[in-house]
Amino acid sequence: MNPCPCGWLGDPGGRCRCPAEATARYQRKLSGPLLDRLDILIEVPALSPAELTEPRLHEAEPSCAVRARVGAARHRQIARQGVANRLLSARQVHEVCALDADGTRLLERAGARLGWSARANFRVLRVARTIADLAGEERPTARHVAEAIQYRRALRSD
Questions:
Q1: Could you write out the DSSP letters of every residue in 31-53?
Q2: Spatial CA neighbour of 30 closest among 41, 18, 19
Q3: Which of 72, 103, 109, 158 gives 99 a disulfide partner, CB atoms 3.0 to 4.6 angstroms apart?
Q4: Which residues are listed as membrane-spanning (predicted)?
Q5: Tell me, what's the pLDDT at 33?
Q6: pTM of the entire predicted model
Q7: CA separation (Å) from 108 to 13, 21, 79, 134, 143?
Q8: Fold of domain 55-150
């Protein structure tokens, strides 16, 4: 979705003229329960024309390498639990996404600070499990949880 009614909030050129209250009202149209049902909520800033032509953008990992890594992660998920991580039930999340003490503490602190629901908490665990699968690691760690927490960033707090 757009970040504000005009769609230019955060534009480096300053094109947005929306008052803060109008932006807040626009963002409140998405309810908490709806946002809870999304696994990843991130803000993607617009790139300037100069950034789009930078050579570093063309040096990114090739799609075929990403596709192979995703395929291997999916294969690990199916072999481990019979379904993709996105289809894990609450019981399966507790079994398959078990964290070490550091990961548990980090998740608890973030959930308390951000006021997450149980549903949001489970989604972070599933995303952390997927990040670990993509890295080829046996179980999610605090590092994976931290990355998953970053992917819960929405236009407003959960």
A1: -HHHHHT-S-----PPPPHHHHT
A2: 41
A3: 103
A4: none
A5: 83
A6: 0.81
A7: 39, 32, 29, 23, 14
A8: Helicase, Ruva Protein; domain 3 (1.10.8)
